[in-house]
Write a structure and sequence with these properties.
Elements (H helix, E strand, L loop, with lengths): L1 H9 L4 H32 L6 H22 L5 H34 L15 H8 L3 H38 L4 H51 L2 H6 L2 H43 L1 H48 L1 H6 L3 H51 L13 H18 L22 E9 L7 E10 L4 E6 L5 H8 L7 E6 L2 E2 L5 H8 E4 L10 H6 L7 H10 L3 H6 L17 H13 L5 E5 L7 H15 L3 E5 L11 E6 L2 E6 L1 H7 L2 H11 L17
Parallel strand pairs: 3-8, 3-9, 6-7, 7-8
Antiparallel strand pairs: 1-2, 1-4, 4-5, 9-10
This protein binds adenosine-5'-triphosphate (ATP).
């Protein structure tokens, strides 16, 4: 500042520069007083994003108004232009500082809130404006309303200091001249200002209400759409992605996107309006320095965006690590019985602690990055303030002044990256649709199934071929059992029939029609009933669990299915009967009870084809007897595919197929296969020596050459 003063002394000869010097001297004092305001505004710039910016803008202008008042008091002849520019310039810078600072804080917030899983990919997921538009469109009216109100509130924010100036003028005039009626003179501007404050408050509440509605609706729609999209995905997708990680996208990522969306709109609109206001005011005063700002600002924004993108990468890695830790906790808590049974609490804790520790280190690095970014942006912005004053001082003689533009880019990018993670799964198209295709009328459906030359590898292990030229026919209303070595591909055959996967070669036919041409939802919902080794029930009532097999089934149908499945007696024995809540995954029921509810659930849809994946293997002898009885009743008149691990349960099957190396190597009835003395006889012999095959099941075994 003294430098300016000396400079202007040297150029005393020039009228223009003399004017400049005088202006600078006046402005120096103004600035000294203004520094309090500047400090305040920079504090504001450092405040967390969540803090209401409108209140700080008002506070800032409050400080500014004090400066104006003091300036007017001490320098009655000070040019209003000088006073105004010295207020508006730094204020604009402050807005910029707020934005750039906000980016860093957003990252901090991002860091805290997000535990979303981000798959490491060479190139991150892409954001689609078209997809966003689809979500925003239904809320367009509310959004437009919010934008108008926000613009209005921001415009008033610009008006308020001007009104304050008017008020100050009245006060200053009275202080100087001690003349006139103070109360009369002050009333009009004071009421005007009061009106402005009230209107500004109303507009602010209005746009916050509307914006929050838009944000919540958009987020809810996103959640529903993402959940729908996830549920539609191929089973292979779930082989490759952990449930906990998918749930994270539904929760944390959408939460993050919503916050950014609201923040960008509210803060962005405010900042843009304020900046445009400042810019226009200053352009009127000084087009030259306005031009200079237009050149400088994009460079700063560019640098900010670069650092921002580096921080985003860091943040993505940190999120991924948090997600890993969540995955460990999710698995341990979800399987707490197994953990407890093996006394693995310490190990799980250790694993979780390791992952959490790694994520803490990454987040610390991110925090350091943010801090550096924040520090640098503060330095740069303070330098701009200084530069503005410096340049302003020397250019003041030319009646020119500076102004700054705000930038929202970095902040938007943050929301965009969260949105991209959400949209990534929205855009995923399953290879096997959930519905669509032909249906065979129930009356003409025979339930014949042909597996013809099937080749198959799981998508997650493409190199490992499970089925090789596999052929099998399930004749209508007959029971076919598949046996073979563990891991030989028996359950895979059932999964292909359910169309959880499509074979890479060959065709599966139902009544002579390729199942790929049939409606998968009809196939699974009406044609095939599946009863697995470990039935999974939902944490609702027994009634709802059975009705899961046929939504819309009457209570009478539920009871009939339960009776067929030998479940009615034990269900009615519960105090709440069919309304008994079974606990998470049916944890409050015994294995046999769970299995019978699962059978009832499968039977209620009256399927033509029944798949039993070792449905009784997990039960004790008594439970097995009751369940087997239910199964015998259930299988009558249906095509049945039994995936058998214990050979004792399938001796009554019409056909037993022995699988080896991904294909059927032997087929026949129990006795036929025993007499062949092949692989089946060998499997029986092995199970007998393991004690898994009771003697009374050995009908015909003594005739075997083995
Ligand atoms: N979802 C999957 N993704 C990748 N590989 C899988 C998947 N499910 C099974 N496999 C692999 O496919 C092979 C066949 O598995 P499958 O469950 O069909 O065998 P199985 O004959 O039913 O075995 P078990 O009698 O032990 O139940 C195994 O090597 C298994 O590791």
């Amino acid at each position: 500042m003294f430098h300016f003063v000396r400079c202007s002394r040297l150029t005393r000869g020039s009228d223009r520069l003399l004017r400049a010097r005088n202006n600078v001297i006046k402005s120096r004092e103004l600035l000294l007083q203004h520094s309090r305001c500047e400090q305040h505004s920079l504090q504001w710039a450092k405040a967390p994003v969540s803090q209401s910016t409108s209140s700080t803008v008002i506070r800032l202008w409050g400080q500014a108004h004090k400066v104006l008042r003091l300036a007017v008091q001490r320098h009655p002849k000070v040019s209003p232009k000088v006073a105004l520019t010295l207020l508006v310039g730094p204020a604009t810078l402050t807005v910029t500082a707020r934005l750039l600072g906000g980016v860093a804080y957003c990252h901090a917030d991002f860091n805290n809130n997000l535990s979303a899983e981000v798959q490491v990919k060479e190139k991150g997921p892409e954001f689609s404006w078209a997809v966003l538009w689809e979500f925003v469109r239904p809320q367009l009216l509310a959004l437009i309303g919010a934008i108008i109100l926000a613009f209005g509130a921001a415009a008033l924010n610009i008006q308020i200091p001007l009104m304050l100036g008017e008020l100050v003028n009245v006060v200053a005039q009275h202080l100087r001249e001690h003349a006139g009626n103070y109360m009369r003179d002050i009333r009009a501007p004071a009421f005007k200002l009061l009106g402005l404050y009230c209107l500004q408050g109303l507009l602010t509440s209005g746009y916050i209400i509307l914006l929050s509605r838009v944000g919540e609706r958009v987020a809810a729609d996103m959640r529903k759409t993402l959940f729908t999209s996830l549920l539609r995905q191929d089973v292979a997708f779930f082989d490759a992605n952990k449930t906990g990680q998918l749930v994270n996208r539904l929760t944390a990522d959408i939460q993050e996107f919503k916050s950014s969306f609201k923040l960008v709109i509210s803060q962005g609109l405010r900042s843009i309006t304020q900046t445009i206001g400042c810019f226009v005011s200053l352009y009127v005063i000084s087009p030259k320095l306005t031009g200079l700002t237009v050149v400088v600002l994009p460079c700063l924004v560019g640098a900010g965006a670069l650092i921002g993108s580096f921080l985003r990468r860091l943040s993505r890695k940190a999120q991924e690590q948090i997600s890993k830790a969540t995955g460990v906790a999710d698995e341990a808590l979800g399987n707490v019985r197994t953990v407890r049974a093996f006394a693995m609490e310490d190990r799980e804790l250790e694993m979780y602690a390791t992952e959490v520790e790694k994520s803490a280190v990454m987040n610390e690095a991110l925090g350091t990055g943010i801090a550096v970014f924040q520090g640098l942006s503060n330095i740069v912005l303070n330098c701009i303030v200084l530069g503005t004053i410096f340049a302003g001082g020397s250019l003041m003689g030319f009646n020119t002044r500076n102004c700054d533009l705000c930038c929202l880019v970095s902040q938007m990018v943050r929301g965009i990256s969260a949105g991209a993670r959400v949209f990534e799964y929205l855009a995923l198209e399953p290879t096997i649709p959930l519905m669509g295709g032909g249906r065979i009328p129930h009356k003409s459906l025979t339930g014949r199934v042909d597996f013809m030359n099937i080749n198959f590898s799981y998508p997650t292990r493409p190199g490992n071929q499970i089925l090789k030229n596999f052929n099998l026919t399930l004749p209508p209303c007959k029971t076919v059992a598949i046996v073979g070595e563990s891991g030989g591909g028996k359950s895979t055959v059932a999964a292909l029939l359910e169309r959880f996967y499509d074979p890479s070669g060959g065709v599966i036919m139902l009544d002579g029609l390729d199942i790929r041409t049939l409606d998968p939802s009809w196939l699974r919902g009406h044609v095939i009933g599946f009863i697995s080794q470990e039935p999974v029930l939902f944490g609702t009532s027994v009634l709802e669990n059975i009705r899961f097999g046929k939504p819309g089934a009457t209570d009478a149908e539920v009871v009939a299915a339960a009776k067929q499945a030998n479940a009615h007696t034990f269900i009615t024995g519960f105090p709440d009967g069919y309304n008994t809540v079974v606990g998470e995954r049916g944890v409050t029921l015994s294995g046999g009870q769970k299995q019978r509810i699962a059978i009832a659930r499968a039977l209620i849809k009256n399927p033509s084809i029944l798949i039993l994946d070792e449905a009784t293997s997990a039960l004790d002898a008594e439970s097995e007897r009751v369940v087997q009885e239910a199964l015998d009743r259930a299988t009558t008149g249906r095509t049945v595919l039994i995936i058998a691990h214990r050979l004792s349960t399938i001796q009554g099957a019409d056909l037993i197929c022995v699988m080896s190396n991904g294909k059927v190597v032997e087929a026949g009835t129990h006795l036929e296969l025993l007499s062949k003395c092949g692989l089946y006889a060998e499997l029986i012999r092995r199970q007998r020596s393991n004690g898994q095959h009771p003697k009374h099941h050995y009908c015909g075994f003594q005739h075997c050459c083995a």
